[in-house]
Amino acid sequence: MAEPANPAAGPVLRFSKMHGAGNDFVVLDLRGGIAAPSPEKCRALGDRHRGVGCDQILTVEDPREPGSVASYGIWNADGSPAGQCGNGARCIAAWLVRDGAAPATGAFNLDSPNGTHVVDRHDDGGVRVVMGVPEFEPERIPLRGFDAVREAYVLPVRGSIISVGAVSMGNPHALIEVDDVGTVTVELMGQGLQQHAAFPQSVNVGFAQVVARDHIRLRVYERGVGETLACGSGACAAVAILGRRGRVDREVRVSLPGGDLCIAWPADDAPMTMTGPATFVFEGEWMA
Ligand SMILES: N[C@@H](CCC[C@H](N)C(=O)O)C(=O)O
């Protein structure tokens, strides 16, 4: 039977579809004070069958801080808001350069929900983002049940006792070190940790395999999404946790299912940087 006409169709919503190493986005231009989409609208846009489909919806908004080019909002495909999105920051930077609002060469400032990032676009189209200093204190993550910072926290998850690293990159991350990311039960353990009482705001869960001191493989089960092809803040979190354990060097290539990101952490109290691609896919109109 033919589907009935879309009775809920309202005004057309223009968007850009982008991705960063396979982590895909619907980008909406809300500059000029246009209201942010409701959680329901984000879910509808993010639906891979009935909407456009994406991991996150990103909104370009007017700057909050003096000297910034713009600010941006982040919503996961399930409609929940997020404080940080590394791959998204690169895509927003490339979007603003294409728009003419940001300079094509040199660094500029972008306001994310959790602070201002310095970004700069390279000639090869790659973008570098200053991601901030990782925060390990349990209350900053937030991680319940532990007072002091540890290299690993031991937690019961889905019938197993596992050792988990945890950090905030402006959003919460947990990390499990594994021998082979190809054989990990990502969904089972990812959901187990996301629903664990130790993470009251849920958590993005990474599974890392150290290949060499300057190279890791990583899969991430994201909060509000599920397994993603890449997670920029997750790549930083993995390098921060493994770096603190002395397992990796200060510059690490992180190979995710959707591509590679380069993460640098010059010193423990210095901000991390992330470099990677930002790709335009198509422009569209959504029957909101
Ligand atoms: N894909 C992102 C992270 C998006 C937000 C995350 N799911 C959360 O809820 O914290 C990245 O590239 O960092």
State the main characteristics.
288 residues, alpha+beta, Diaminopimelate Epimerase, Chain A, domain 1, 2 domains, 17-stranded mixed sheet, 4 helices, binds the ligand N[C@@H](CCC[C@H](N)C(=O)O)C(=O)O
Q: Could you please describe the fold and organization of this structure?
A:
- The chain is an alpha+beta fold and 288 residues long.
- 15% of the residues lie in helices and 40% in strands.
- The protein has helices at 39-46, 86-99, 186-194, 232-244, and strands spanning 12-20, 23-29, 56-61, 68-76, 107-112, 115-121, 127-132, 153-157, 160-168, 172-177, 204-212, 215-222, 226-228, 251-256, 259-264, 272-276, 279-287.
- The chain has a 17-stranded mixed sheet that branches.
- The mean pLDDT is 96.
- The protein binds ligand LBFN2T5F.
- Residues 23, 55-56, 74, 76, 82, 84-88, 171, 204, 222-225, 228, 231-233 line the site of ligand LBFN2T5F.
- GO terms for molecular function: diaminopimelate epimerase activity.
- It holds the Pfam family DAP_epimerase.
